[in-house]
Write a sequence for this structure.
RNA sequence: GGCGGUGUAGCUCAGCGGUUAGAGCACUCGGCUCAUACCCGGGGUGUCGCUGGUUCAAUUCCAGCCACCGCUACCA
């Protein structure tokens, strides 16, 4: 049994309803960087990521694709794993919430909390969108009581549910946060969470009956366990479910749960309280990072601005992408992504500063010393300052890495790169060579190579594929004892080493060409926001289940006290229909009088604001624009097929 | 509405009760030539959001205002 210090870090388990984007890549790269760094510092590390595969959305997506949920997610998980391979993610385990051991442990823990009385049966009442089959809060539905997703009216609904007695633990939670001020980071998020809990905690609804793609509640098979309860358990089940349980003994509690800022509350309130109820130790800290914004805007499928990390890696190389992410995102802040920003980072930091430093170092050793690193026999007046800085950097860099301030750590490290470039200009080895000052020349070239060794070791957790290329060029590929954190002692690089000059590490990006290539999209193409992806194939029979009819608008009025609802009286052949539609933001009530529109005539009626809506009008929506579908010159009642 | 935060060079941000307010990028001039048209050096603009207050002294503390942002539970 090792007595090394341990380090357990996790990412969220991602939801396989779609492929992952650059934001997910950020979280996972950050966790991977941290795990590699800790490993290098001698920690026994465990790095967990995975997938959160249950829930209604998956079930619906699978159904739409004509697949079983398990089959559906299996295919997406392949893409997840492929992405992590491309990004050089070295995780120790990949947990899936459909893994047998996860399901078993999740049920055990749910049962335990139930047995001790902290889960009880009651009734959940909320605003419900039948269309989206989703509950919403008062705040989410707003005054108009419309679905925040689809804009249709919602209704109140009751559901028998199990509730988790969160409120019971509120005081204990607050005390814990007082005693552990670094548990929630950054501090701004901590304050938000504390403020939230101070306003009082309600018990959490932790079971669902409206769908069945989930882990069954062990003592009541009508219910499945709420996806967040299910998902959060992964951090423990992954350890407990493996082998003899020694992983759990060794690594729990986790040192860091790395999460995006959007899911901080689940990780800092619900999860700790679950652990309190289970009488298990809490993790050391939850770090909520910002988002990767695209042109200062949130990434989203509907905006069509989702960035695929695999494309970036293929185009720019994985090391560059990882460096960009880790360098660009400030602690707790959002960062911007654009291809130009990425290109600038690559050119300035990686190509010009770092890559070129290696290039000029190997270039001169090759040219002036027959490719051999000679011993530093005669120092120049510039050596002391450079060496002092190199010696001081590991401590500074390490302190920032320990605090997970990756961007600052890299910024600190690059000060040494810049210093080395300046050192070369000051010492001017080409002049020393010309003057025949071999002693000084060999010192300068030695120092340059040694700085490169230092920087490369420290940069390795961020760019894990980089060192072997550099070691090969510096001629120390085989000497692994020179690649470690412990070897960051100035002067370990052995004289007599034969270097082998190679290709540039990071070719410069032609930014002008990049800009030119981006331009052609601008003209006329009316800012085509990439359209929504086409839904999975359906059969003619699927379509035939819908009965679409032409209807004529006989009357239309605004529904009182709502912002979005219009009430239509429609002529459908010989009958009349009353239909509500959430389009009041787009049409005045009298605008549509007499027009022929398209109605889903066999949609199950639903009561909204006390009015029964007998169908649904079709409309097209793009961004903030909406137009109803018209069917001019056709009599009402005509069937659409 | 409630609570909290931010507002500093063209951009991203650092900073701080007290000498001429900083970094990187962008821009520009000069130098060098080992190097990936690279590196090194010089240069400039900032009413440090607005208005008051405390102080010998505020960009830095306090108040008000304006602007922007975050949180305000059961959506993964």
């Amino acid at each position: 049994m090792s007595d090394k210090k341990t380090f357990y870090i996790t990412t969220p388990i991602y939801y396989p309803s779609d492929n992952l984007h650059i934001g997910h890549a950020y979280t996972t790269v950050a966790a991977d960087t941290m795990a590699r760094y800790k490993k290098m510092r001698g920690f026994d590390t465990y790095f967990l990521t995975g997938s959160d595969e249950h829930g209604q959305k998956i079930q619906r997506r699978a159904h739409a694709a004509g697949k079983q949920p398990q089959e559906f997610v299996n295919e997406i998980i392949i893409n997840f794993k492929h992405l992590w391979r491309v990004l050089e993610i070295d995780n120790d385990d990949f947990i899936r919430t459909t893994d047998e051991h996860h399901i078993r442990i999740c049920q055990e823990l749910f049962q335990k909390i139930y047995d001790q009385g902290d889960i009880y049966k009651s009734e959940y009442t909320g605003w419900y969108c039948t269309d989206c089959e989703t509950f919403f809060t008062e705040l989410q539905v707003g005054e108009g009581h419309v679905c925040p997703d689809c804009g249709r009216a919602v209704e109140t609904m009751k559901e028998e549910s199990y509730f988790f007695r969160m409120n019971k633990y509120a005081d204990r939670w607050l005390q814990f946060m007082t005693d552990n001020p670094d548990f929630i980071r950054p501090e701004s998020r901590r304050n938000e969470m504390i403020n939230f809990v101070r306003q009082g905690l309600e018990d959490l609804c932790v079971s669902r009956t409206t769908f069945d793609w989930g882990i069954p509640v062990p003592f009541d098979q009508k219910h499945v366990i709420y996806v967040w309860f299910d998902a959060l358990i992964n951090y423990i089940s992954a350890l407990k479910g493996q082998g003899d349980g020694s992983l759990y003994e060794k690594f729990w509690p986790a040192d860091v749960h790395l999460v995006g800022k959007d899911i901080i509350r689940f990780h800092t309130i619900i999860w700790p309280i679950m652990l309190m109820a289970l009488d298990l130790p809490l993790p050391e800290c939850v770090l909520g990072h910002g988002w990767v914004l695209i042109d200062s805007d949130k990434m989203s499928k509907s905006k069509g601005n989702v960035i695929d990390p695999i494309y970036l890696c293929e185009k720019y190389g994985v090391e560059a992408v990882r460096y960009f992410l880790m360098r660009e995102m400030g602690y707790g802040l959002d960062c911007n992504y654009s291809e130009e920003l990425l290109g600038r980072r690559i050119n300035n930091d990686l190509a010009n500063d770092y890559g070129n430093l290696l290039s000029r170092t190997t270039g001169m050793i090759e040219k002036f010393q027959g490719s051999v690193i000679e011993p530093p026999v005669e120092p120049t007046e510039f050596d002391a300052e450079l060496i002092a800085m190199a010696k001081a950097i590991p401590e500074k860099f390490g302190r920032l890495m320990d605090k997970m301030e990756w961007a600052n750590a890299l910024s600190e490290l690059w000060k040494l790169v810049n210093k080395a470039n300046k050192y070369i200009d000051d010492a001017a080895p080409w002049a020393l060579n010309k003057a025949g000052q071999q002693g000084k020349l060999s010192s300068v070239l030695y120092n340059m190579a040694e700085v490169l060794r230092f920087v490369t070791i420290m940069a390795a957790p961020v760019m894990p594929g980089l060192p072997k290329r550099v070691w090969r060029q510096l001629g120390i590929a085989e000497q692994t004892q020179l690649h470690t954190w412990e070897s960051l002692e100035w002067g370990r690089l052995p004289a007599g080493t034969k270097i082998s000059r190679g290709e540039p590490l990071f070719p410069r990006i032609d930014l002008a060409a990049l800009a030119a290539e981006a331009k052609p999209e601008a003209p006329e193409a009316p800012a085509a926001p990439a359209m929504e992806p086409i839904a999975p194939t359906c059969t003619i029979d699927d379509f035939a289940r819908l009965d679409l009819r032409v209807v004529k608008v006989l009357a239309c009025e605004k529904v009182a006290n709502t912002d979005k609802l219009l009430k239509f009286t429609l002529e459908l052949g010989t009958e009349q229909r009353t239909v509500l539609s959430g389009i009041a933001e787009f049409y005045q009530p009298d605008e549509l009088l007499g027009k022929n529109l398209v109605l889903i005539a066999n949609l199950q009626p639903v009561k909204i604001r006390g009015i029964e809506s007998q169908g649904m009008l079709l409309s097209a929506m793009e961004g903030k624009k909406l137009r109803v579908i018209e069917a001019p010159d056709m009599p009402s009642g005509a069937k659409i097929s």
Summary: The first strand of chain A starts at residue 6 and ends at 14. The two ends of chain A are 70 Å apart (CA to CA).
